[in-house]
Amino acid sequence: MHSDPSPVRPVGRGAKVRAAVHAATLAELLDKGYAALTVENVAQRAGVHKTTVYRRWKDRESLLTDALAEHMAMDIPVPDTGGIETDLRALARSLVQSFTSPTGQAVLAAMFTGAAHLPEIAAARRHVFDDRLARAEPVVTRAVERGELAGDTDPAELFKTLVAPIYLRLLMTADPVDETTADQAVRVTLAAARAGALRRARDGDPASG
Amino acid sequence: MHSDPSPVRPVGRGAKVRAAVHAATLAELLDKGYAALTVENVAQRAGVHKTTVYRRWKDRESLLTDALAEHMAMDIPVPDTGGIETDLRALARSLVQSFTSPTGQAVLAAMFTGAAHLPEIAAARRHVFDDRLARAEPVVTRAVERGELAGDTDPAELFKTLVAPIYLRLLMTADPVDETTADQAVRVTLAAARAGALRRARDGDPASG
Asked: Residues 6 or more apart from A17 whose CB is under 8 A from it?
């Protein structure tokens, strides 16, 4: 939950290489799946040397984790609209939009089928999720500063409450997932937050996960 | 959501065969996975003729769906404690207990890895989920009768809100899943219900999924 949200961005050539390698990693994942993902293929597709990749990422798992986190960061920007309700709505709607797009569906499939049981995929999933939580935390901080949410609101609990019904529908029930789903998730989350059901855990206080 | 929750139970020998075939189906699934699941192997393991199985289930998918629904119905009984909070807590806690047990973990793995992308597995998942919703609906009906919940509370929305954070943790974040998770899900769900965020959808009303 408090992992570093994003390393300082390299600029110039470094940034270009990073972007090319990320794009190649995602493309390889979508084309061939996790099992066939190799640093060699990624390097070739990105038009860089294998050693260039290894200089920045220690193995294909850290590469994959980084590429997925970056993809979601670009695809689901953290909003700052000036109000908690509109912020959460923007966030939930981009999540829905992202995961109902062909790329998003392929990312979900890659993360939840075939390789889903592998510890490294579980770790990647966890890292990407934690990265999202860390990036989105300012949404709650700003709402607290504006007096819209109580100071002891737990950002992680709040965002898990927001995204849980969306993932449930994407992964389990196959109900349609659209703006209605997103807006409904916002209503539930704000109702819970305002009722004090999303407070930070304290000693013996059972509000965390 | 409104599929038939359970066919009329056969009694006597029929019931015994049904139970034996269900148990054998689950055991085969857990031992060998979905790909290797055959009516032949199930029949052999249950000690019955293949034709006996085919007389009751048209194919291995309907057999699997029925066996999983029955397993969850037994493992996660629908409570009737006289109060909505205690009912939901009992339900959420049994869900947690079921899916953190070795059998539950294996069922989750079978439903979400390897075969997860197959349409027949998606259909089975959906059917089992709908069966659960239909069975649990009286919990909400009784709460409405007792005046604990508003009459227009949507049972499906309520139960999805209850289980979503539990599945999120089981499938995505790998946070610990325990009674705390269950109780927290109940708090959020009741807060949302009491704030009117879980009402039945009406014309143009965006509360459904």
From this structure: A46, A48, A52, A56
Give the pLDDT confidence of A77-99 residue by residue, as tens digits.
999 999 999 999 999 999 999 99
Q: Do B184 and A125 touch (CB under 8 A)?
A: no
What ipTM was estimated for this complex? Answer: 0.85
- Residue entry with tokens 């009906």: B141
* Out of A114, A125, A175, closest to residue B114 by CB: A114
What are the tens digits of pLDDT across the range B39-87? 999 999 999 999 999 999 999 888 988 999 899 889 999 999 999 999 9
* Residue B153 region by backbone torsions, left for phi larger than 0, else alpha for psi between -120 and 50, else beta: beta
State the Rg of chain A over Cα.
18
Residue in B130, B173, B180 nearest the CB of A129: B173
Name the minimum distance, in Å, from the CA of B7 to any CA of chain A: 22
What are the structural domains of chain B?
Answer: 15-57 (1.10.10.60), 68-208 (1.10.357.10)
Residues paired with B153 in a beta bridge: B199
A–B: how many Cβ contacts below 8 A? 140
**What is the C-alpha end-to-end distance of chain B, expressed in Å?**
11
CB B182 within 8 A of CB B166: yes
Cα angle B139, A177, A65 (rounded to 5 degrees) comes to 110
pLDDT value of position B115: 60
Single pTM value for the model:
0.86
Residues with Cβ within 8 Å of residue B176, at least 6 apart in sequence: A209, B169
Amino acid, single-letter form, for residue B151: G
B131 vs B13, residue with greater confidence: B131
Closest to A66 in 3D by CA, of A150, A142, A10:
A10
